[in-house]
Specification:
Largest sheet: 9 strands, mixed
Number of helices: 32
Distance between the termini: 61 Å
Structural class: alpha+beta
Amino acid sequence: MCPANLIAQLFCNVRGLNGYIGDRVPLCVDLPQKHFLRKGATFKLIGSSVTPELHNDRPEWEENYPELLRLEVGSSSPLFTALCAADGSGICTFPSKIVLAENLAYDIEAQKGSEYKVDTIRSVKLQSGLSHPIHYEYVRQPCVEHSFYNDAKKVGKGSVAARNTNANVIEGSMCADPRLPSATPMCTSKNWDNSMSWGMIYCNYHAERVTFTSAQRICEGVEGADLVQGQPGAIAENRAGPCGVGVSNSIPYFRWWTSVGCDVKVKISLKSGQVAIVHEPKPDKAGLALVEPLVDEKTLNFFKVPWTNDAFPSVQECKDNSCFVSSDEESCICSSDVIENQAYSSVDYSNSIDDFMNTLHIGAADPASYDAGTYTVIDCGITGVTVYSTNGDYSALGIDTIFGFEWKSKQYFLKNSKSIVKLRGSGNFSFRNPVHFINFADSNAYAAHHETDAVLDSLFYHPSHPPFMAIRMIQRFGISNPSPSFIERVSTAYSTGTYGGFGSARYGDMGALVAAILLDDEARQVVLDADQSHGHLREPLIKLTSFFRSMGLSFNQPLMLPSLIGQEDMIGQGSFESPSVFSFFLPEFTPTGVAQSAGLFVPELDGMMSTIKFGLVTNSPKCKNMMAYLTFSGWDQRLMECPDEEGITDDSPAHAAYFPSSTASVDAILDEMSTLLTSGRLSSHNRQLIKPIVEQAFNSGDIPKAVRIAQQLMFATPEFHATNIPRKQNTAREIDSYSFLPSQPYKAVVVLMMIGGADSFNLLVPKCNDAYEEYMEARKKHALPKTSLTTVTATDQGTCSEWGINNLMSTVADHYQAGQALFFANTGTLTKKMTNQDDYVKESRFQLYAHNSMQHEFFTGDPLEKNAGTGVFGRMLDVLRLNGYHTSANAVTGYGGKMLTGDQLHNFPVTTVGTVPPKELNMSPTIANLYDVVKELNGKGEPGNSFLSETWSSRVATALFEHEQMVIISNDDRFEVKDYPEGYDVQLGLQFQAVAEYMMSREYRNVTRDVFVVPHTGYDLHFGDALAELFLVIVMGSDFGRTMNANSNGGTDHAWGGNYFMMGGKVRGGRILGDYPRPLSPKCPSWIGRGRFIPTTPWDAVWNGLANWLGVSDKDMDFVLPNRYNFNKCNDLFFDKDLFTDGVCDCNSACSGDPPSPLPNPTPTPPPTNAPTVTSQTPIPTQPTPNPTPN
């Protein structure tokens, strides 16, 4: 969405989701006269200040010019009475906001009041009978203007004076609709056209805006002067009269009318058919027409319009129609006429409200706000539709006829009119006239507010909104994968506003939506718990809150104010600490494994176990060896000694106070706890595992210990974490590992993911003169001076060989110059090669510019969803592993699992590489071999096991295996990287140090191929000497590039193509691959507006070369990159010879990379979905789970 920021916003939202933003809003020219005195008029109290908040008056006027004319209404005025809003005692209450409920009645005497003599109001002063003045600001009702109109008049601004050798120059000219109050009068002598006439401004109040007709009347009505509305030869503030204060400011706050004409023309992009608005005013006395850049002939403010029959003129047709064609023949400027016609000649041509909504696009004011008798109400015979006619005959409707009805619970008044812009000439080119909220000549904040509301309305009333709300709310209420019919029922309830007696019967009723979710059979039928995909995996904070509630968390220090802030490293979430606007995870998030990993499983488990044993403890020397512990913020600075034995919570600020209502038997305890913690879902198999361990403590007479054992074990079950029923086998879950190290050379890829969209056009910048000037023009305030760029050379980019790398990226520049780094120019996700002449939105098949969708496409490398649910490196590792390579997929700090996830048939694990060394688990145990029991509770699932339970259990088993392995690695000095270089970004440094140390353990892990995904939200890239390793390559990636042009808030917006680096010891560096966009302007075939570029290098090209280097053969590449067939193999894709000094593949060879070493006892492996070629599988031993031993 574009920012609502006055002039910068004018063209941004011209096109909406279904037409123009502003469709079906009344036209400002159609508002009834004196609309500020009629039904619906809104006034805001601004108190003692006279300066309005939503109009653009200069604040210093109030302070420096107290004598300026103000619009004051007398105490006998109907408007004064309405704003006073006197109470029963006759004392004014002056409400903060007043909306007139009906037209104010002005008799002959009242019409003598000052407010009745003006075209519009900005603010009004109430003084009569009051101890001090009170001011109200008038906020005009939402209305829009047509972008093109006939009979325009020229308006100017500022003073008129000498400019260089020319006198009488009017600067910043533009057109204005003479029917609208957009400017002040500019009175001159009658012979202004033949003389050096000084301009005078007359007004009823300072900065008054009037229509052109009113300006003529005001000038001609000045007593003692023979003046007309003209075009001044000169203006000076000291000679412009009492209403001229501020007219000569460098940034004037009002414009003034001239009596000369102005043409509103259409500028057409001959490539895309988009149009821009060009104003061509008649010249001033100096013979010049200096136009505002916003609407001059050089404007680039193009937007889409619906051309009739989708036909817009060609270059030759522009020439044939006497249009001005640009020298590069990329655009033409044509004169136009606006044709207003009635939409319906009779209501017989329509039979439904939907038909009216599809045909009528111009709104109308409420007919009740017009003078009585203006409209006659007639019955047209269509249910719910009222026709307001000026002639009383529905069989012969006029252009001013209004149709009134409700649609989606919103009242609409639509005008029986259509406005068409037709290009002059012999051709028949036309389009529907666009509308906009902000007056070009008189921009005010209230119009930007109205436009923002209209954008929100367009989203709210869009057909996709009810199902979107239904899906998201159902998920929040605990059903992650609702059926299409459930979504439809909830969506219908939201749209109709009613469900089972709940709701207001109005569109968008949240009560009806919630009732539909909670009362639907799909939410209430217990039998659905057996469905594999029903229910959800509970979020960490939800689980924690549930456990505390059901287990009776008791506060031993009630005067403390606890919260769950700062628990991200413990459980993956913290109260009120969502890391982004997308919450803790994207709505489309899928955990690794059957369903991918959604949490920090071991810390969450061990933290809760510690809470059960010791209560909520804080960081103390005695507890420092614990793996994890949960705390409430506010207590973390208070050191508390952990007791010597578990179960003692006396000194803890809070503990689980639950005790069973019946302790007659272990079954009684387990029955109650199963109800509280698993809603009765505890399986008989897991109950049989838990019961004998609880019985040992129960039979010894230690009931509290028996309860603690039951709490810890039940918390570890999949039944607690997932809300459907698991199906398990009575066997331990197998964990993969490798038993030997193949002879293949080790290779590793690190994907550095710059989250949020890296501004990569300030990473790599052309420094040759013409290209750098283009860069400066496009980037403006965001452009970097040449002194901020390290100069490098590239011979791959045509005539420009001098390039600059951002000085903040000194490591990248050093390795580029050393021949160990290269750049991929204008790279991004593509379904196929495209230019701005193609329908790139439709052809892309994915949502452009959105963080979630673009991250998804980068991670999966599968825009057509040929291998849905898998990541691009996950598929690479699948192929490599199935062909004998020993692989490891590594998500640093748990990020990037989607990119590393392979085909679900194999379910190869994704390892989490942390930045903090793991600690010993189960300190001061209640059960000596607690985590062996946890493995049993999360044993191997049956083929029909719940997807959610399978996800939780497989991740717990994998996490425990990873933890055990990580403990060994972290305690082995051979794998420690000492004196790792520090950058200013500590977190990034810790992540790369963790990667370096984990790579050093490759022989211990028997791995020959590692892939890491490292997240980063900043841009410090200090890698030290890690790149000296010949086996390592680092690839930068991001959601998308950023716009070249700044947005209205001074930042840059989401774009598409970006520039990314790759570096490593074997990289064939010192080059820029792909096509850097040139020129950096709309003339570039990849430019799609505001400095966005369609990528010229697909990510498929990069992944193709990397996959070659890792060992993926050409015959398996279509599985790894299912979209690569859309690109020319030799022209569009890279091979490892292109990227690496040791590469062996090019587009003419079907090479297979490094040959795998001979495998002992090869075993055939079934192929995955869309199977790659399989040779054989390395035998993978399983790690048996010991039998549980109660303490």
